[in-house]
Amino acid sequence: MNDNHIRKIIHIDMDAFYASVEQLDNPELKGKALAVGGNKERGVVAAASYEARRFGVRSAMSSKLAALKCPELIFIKPRFDRYKEISQQIRAIFFDYTDLVEPLSLDEAFLDVTINKVGNPSATIIAQDIRRRIKEEVGLNASAGISYNKFLAKIASDLNKPNGQAVIHPSKAEAFLEKLPIEKFFGIGEKTAEKMKRFGIYNGLDLKQFSLQFLTKQFGKTGIHYYNIVRGIHMSEVKPNRIRKSLSAENTFDHDLKDRKNLLEALIKIVDELKLRIARTKVEGRTLTLKIKYNDFTVQTRSKSYDQTIRVEQLLEIVETLLDQAPVIFPVRLLGVGISNLNNPPNMPEENKQLKIEYKNF
Questions:
Q1: 13: annotated binding-site residue?
Q2: Which residues span the domain enclosing 182?
Q3: Is 81 annotated as a binding residue?
Q4: Based on the domain organization, do 282 and 225 belong to the same domain?
């Protein structure tokens, strides 16, 4: 690794963010197994407290399974406006250190501190200070990963969770990656990991034995990505101005919907929520998509695109047209409405130039 191509990247990841906010706002919930989202009968867990995780409860798990794993699990309805408020407080702290902040979601972000506002050459110390301030000023715990690229920083942030941080030093990155189980590589999902294991790829060292030609033949263009990341090569910059590609609202119902009247009543509320989000973000789009999830968890989407941007007063009419586009197979578990092909104005961040960095201050 050439010193001229070293950045200092921090990945901050809040610990059990939604659940931690609920425990922060309601001290009676502290120390208790908590799930945000769903209820004991249906829905999906959006976040689980660490007390719930000890029972095997995880985000994206069905609420029914979560309740079976942890009978004393407390279900809390999400409060996304509150989570967004807290997230904005945390991001304000980030901007005290650098303007190169790339949010991935409400609870995580990349920061490029190669050159920073506090004049500290150590990304490790900056990460410690950010975590301290989040705890003191917001009241929540955060974990951090530090390395010379985004891929490694994100892996590092998970190593000492909760409320910890880890550094993957440039000089030790390849040795670390060689020992890393293949399913721990960020961007390699369960199905891809299973396919790799059929070729005898169980960790980074195994992956390293396969040629670029073989990986691209088996995995397409992403094979290039796999070939590079196991060698510690990932040149994606921290992009402070991520362009939104879509905007949506959806709802998972307490009881399955079984007729068109109930579907329309539900869609009116979802469209109203989408209108509010459009007003807040000030975006317009040319494609509208209706998402229908049935009680057997199969998903159907129906979309319609226009030459001109869609006016908010048209949304419900178009959604109703999409609903009648084909028969609905009742019962329905979830409905969602999204707008895409957005007209975001181009906002190109200044090039994040690579600089010569000394290892000793990493």
A1: yes
A2: 173-233
A3: no
A4: no
